[in-house]
Q: What sequence folds into this?
């Protein structure tokens, strides 16, 4: 059984083709810079070298068509017929209140997804275009939507509501939704396996730290709270996003600078020019920040410490909400690859039973592993995320359940 996973981002389309008998990748790649002159297609398959070429793709529809044609190429493709694909799994950023679990695509589901355009205008329309392109290129092959927000739908109303007039929730759907749910779901199950206990018997905090970052409090396999909110802007300091700020800053900026009367200018400031980039003035990439810190750059050091401090605050708050935890999981680009961030975040948390083994933490590895001291009451773990595989599993399950 083969499952094709499609992930349409704001300016890219990523894909992975899985053979589900052994859950191994057959082919994978990405079309980047869609609609721009510098657009390119990078792909790889088992046993073959990575290839990259410049391409002309005007939109996400053309990008998906390019990928599927390439997968079916008689000389270099990975499938001989579209019938080899049992189901296509689509990563969807936002499901709003409408979708609390993965669903098989129907006309009704597509209409429901369109109703979520307004709360995810940078992503959901592109997801929708990808769905239509797949239906065109793979007629008769079922598709499944897997939502980043779905895993967080177990959060209680007192935790997801904002203290705005209730009508804004009723009429505009303004509430916390949370994101990176597929990643939090995957690593929480891996953590349970590593601990040798069912997820339903554990309390954990999962830290998805990358260019975009989110923290989740998980009890008995269900999310109790998460750091991102109505959009992925809320929460910890991120690569180019500011995270939590005083909302009164917004009207203050509007009154101070007429350029911010344009909502898009504010959106760019908060989402693309803030975070590590905004504080350091160098980059939103943690690798660049860490190098600059080592070279004595004070602003880079400030940015590094702000990010780590914000993560530590959420861990401490969620520890209290859960009344103790069994483990902390670090995942995604920074969480998996930055020992200095993990060390700084976990420093001085011994009172909570969190004790890191510095030597284990500094050992270079791409494998899932424990980095806590043997005597640490709370186990600290590094688990590489695999959102694509989780989407493939969800798609296979939904298809089996009809």
A:
């Amino acid at each position: 059984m083969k499952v094709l996973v499609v992930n349409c981002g704001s300016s890219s389309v990523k894909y992975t083709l899985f053979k589900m008998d052994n859950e191994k990748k057959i082919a994978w790649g990405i079309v980047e810079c869609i609609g721009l002159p510098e657009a390119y297609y990078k792909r790889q398959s088992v046993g073959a070298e990575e290839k990259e070429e410049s391409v002309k793709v005007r939109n996400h529809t053309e990008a998906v068509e390019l990928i599927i044609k390439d997968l079916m190429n008689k000389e270099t493709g990975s499938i001989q017929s579209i019938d080899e694909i049992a189901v296509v799994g689509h990563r969807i950023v936002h499901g709003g209140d409408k979708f609390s679990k993965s669903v098989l695509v129907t006309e009704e589901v597509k209409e429901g997804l369109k109703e979520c355009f307004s709360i995810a205008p940078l992503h959901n329309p592109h997801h929708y275009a990808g769905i239509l392109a797949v239906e065109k290129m793979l007629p008769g092959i079922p598709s499944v939507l897997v939502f980043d927000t779905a895993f967080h739908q177990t959060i209680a109303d007192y935790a997801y509501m904002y203290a705005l007039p209730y009508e804004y929730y009723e009429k505009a759907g303004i509430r916390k939704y949370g994101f990176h749910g597929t990643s939090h779901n995957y690593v929480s199950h891996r953590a349970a396996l590593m601990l040798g206990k069912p997820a339903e018997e554990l309390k954990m905090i999962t830290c998805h730290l990358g260019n975009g970052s989110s923290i989740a409090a998980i009890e008995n396999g269900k999310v109790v709270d998460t750091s991102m909110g109505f959009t992925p802007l809320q929460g910890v300091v991120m690569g180019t996003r500011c995270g939590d700020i005083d909302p009164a800053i917004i009207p203050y900026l509007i009154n101070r600078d007429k350029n911010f009367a344009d909502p898009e200018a504010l959106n760019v400031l908060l989402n693309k020019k803030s975070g590590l980039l905004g504080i350091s003035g160098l980059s939103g990439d943690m690798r660049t920040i860490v190098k600059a810190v080592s070279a004595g750059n004070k602003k880079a050091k400030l940015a590094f410490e702000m990010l780590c401090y914000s993560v530590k605050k959420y861990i401490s708050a969620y520890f209290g909400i859960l009344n103790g935890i069994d483990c902390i999981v670090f995942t995604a680009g920074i969480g998996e690859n930055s020992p200095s961030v993990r060390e700084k975040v976990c420093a001085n948390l011994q009172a909570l039973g969190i004790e890191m083994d510095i030597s284990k933490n500094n050992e270079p590895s791409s494998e899932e592993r424990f980095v806590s001291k043997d005597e640490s009451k709370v186990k600290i773990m590094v688990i590489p995320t695999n959102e694509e595989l989780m989407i493939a599993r969800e798609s296979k399950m939904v298809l089996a359940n009809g």
The chain has a mean pLDDT of 94. The first helix runs from residue 60 to 71. The longest strand covers residues 24-32.
